[in-house]
Every structure is written in structure tokens, then in C-alpha cells.
Amino acid sequence: MAVALHEPLQFGAALRARREALRLQQREVAARAGISSSLLSLLEQNKRQPSLGTLDALAEALGVTVWYLVAESQPISEHASERTRQLCADLRELSRKLQELLDRSRESAEEAAD
Q1: pLDDT tens per residue, range 86-107
Q2: How many whole angstroms separate alpha carbon 50 and alpha carbon 30?
Q3: Residue 51: strand, helix, or coil
Q4: Which residue has the higher pLDDT, 49 or 76?
Q5: Which of 5, 72, 87, 99 could be a cystine partner for 14, CB 3.0 to 4.6 Å?
């Protein structure tokens, strides 16, 4: 079952941005996620949409939550009320902050293990 993304262009951009932020090559992320490099490339180019399993595997490979990947990729409707727009913006900001905390926690755990 493919995940229905309203604006897949943004999903590909969010996926690529996270991969590049981690300084990973497509082949590295694909191997971690158990998918082909060509599929990852198609996803980043918005030529394919991920199944739920692939989305979950990509989130794991990139060290983020599924919510982070999806929230970063969804546009806010121009017809939404100002309150809805603000709530969406707040949720995205909370998602980013949560991801930053998770990243720092992971880094601290890795440093402690060394």
C-alpha cells in the first residue's frame, strides 16, 4: 500500500535533504533501508511513492521518525483557517525539535560508548 502524499515533490525534497544532512550517499541509505539505489533515486525525484514498509525503513535508515519525513513533506492548504495553519506550523516545529533531541541523544550515546 503506497502512502498517499498530496504533494510528493516535497516528500522527495525532504528525503534528499535528510540524506544530504547526514552526508550519506544514496547507495548507503538504500542498503540501510533494504531497497535498491534506483528506488531511492526515484523516490527523491518524486517518480515513485513509498509503501508504508519502505517509508518505515527509510525513516529508520535516516534516523528519523516517519512523522518527521511526512510532516516535512506536506503542504498546508491555502484554504485552511489561520488557526489550522498555525497548528500545522507548530506541529512541524515540534517535529523538528524532537528530531534534534533524538539526534543529540543518539550522538551522546555513541560518544559514551566510545
Answers
A1: 777 787 788 778 878 888 887 8
A2: 13
A3: strand
A4: 49
A5: 72
Write a three-state SS string for 66-78.
HHHHHHHHCCCCC
- The residues near 30 (Cβ < 8 Å, ≥ 6 apart) are 36, 37, 39, 40
Q: Distance between alpha carbon 77 and the CA centroid of its chain, in Å?
A: 20
Q: How far, in Å, CA of 113 to CA of 100, rounded?
A: 20
Phi, psi of 51 (to 5 degrees): -75, 170
The single-letter DSSP state of residue 2 is B
Q: Which domains does the chain have, with CATH numbers?
A: 8-113 (1.10.260.40)
Q: Which of the four pLDDT bands, split at 50, 70 and 90, describes residue 112?
A: confident
Q: 65 near 99, Cβ under 8 Å?
A: yes
Of the candidates 66, 53, 57, 71, the one whose C-alpha atom is nearest the C-alpha of residue 6 is 71
